[in-house]
Amino acid sequence: MNVKELNPDSSPQAAFGARLRRSRSERGWTQDELGGRMGYSSTHISSVETGRKMPTLRLARSADAALGTGDTFEREWREIRHGALLEGFPEYLGHESRAAEIRLYEVGVIHGLLQTPAYASALAESAVKRGAITPDQADERVALVMERQAALARTPPPLLLVVLDESCIRRPIGESAVMEAQLARLVEFAELPNTVLQVAPFDMGVRRPFDLPITVLTLPDRSLMSYAESSQRGHLDRETPSVVPILGAYHQLQAEALSQAASVAMINQLRKGTP
After folding, report:
1. Structural domain of residue 152, as residue ranges?
2. End residue of a domain, out of 65, 84, 103
């Protein structure tokens, strides 16, 4: 039987596959036996071991459970996944998960920290249909959204200030039931004691200080950090002289946007089918 030689140094994906094969071989298991324990076919295991198929979070956790390796494969999967994310974003995620205050402005779609699983899935499935990502990558995107939200469910929770461009709540994503549940989620979010939700209406016009999404974090030591994305990379700025003007512009945005009560009223009107 021919066994394909692996070069673990060729890529993180190849390193994952080589570790999986080595762990399996050390136990004297065939790919069929490992696949049976993990809930995958031997063909799927072979594709992962040889680097032809990208491992998923589910597969990594199944491998750890079957092989008794703790969270070794899950941690390796996260390294692979972070390497595939937009440059600068993995580092941002680490800061987001421990920030004392998070200020967000989003355009076009509901921000990930407020998305329902169904809304996140609809966005990911659309990307699959366009050929932008694979189904496995779509699953990973949704899992990441849920992980980010779970990271904020801590004690004490961060103060979360959100301004959504009106396009976020008017742009239909998925079936009508998906959008209804997402709008209901926004109303629930606004009722939390550590959140403020506002809508920046279209008629703000040129009074809108930002054209693109922006995030400003206040870390536990009260230092500031901003994050913004281009099509190629995410930009994390820790320089206070650069971030303070962005924070000032965010305050202007909040002053011009609808109040939380008026924002929730607009969302509820949409839920009733009223323009």
Report:
1. 89-271
2. 84
Counted domains in the chain:
2
pLDDT over 90 (residue 220): yes
Looking at the structure, tell me whether residues 71 and 107 fall in a common domain. Answer: no
- What is the per-residue pLDDT across 11-43, written as a single tens digit (0 to 9) for each? 677 888 989 999 999 999 999 999 999 999 999
187 pLDDT more than 50: yes
CATH label of the domain that carries residue 259 = 3.30.870
Same domain for 100 and 160: yes
Please name which of 159, 238, 146, 234 lies closest in space to residue 194, comparing C-alpha atoms.
Answer: 159
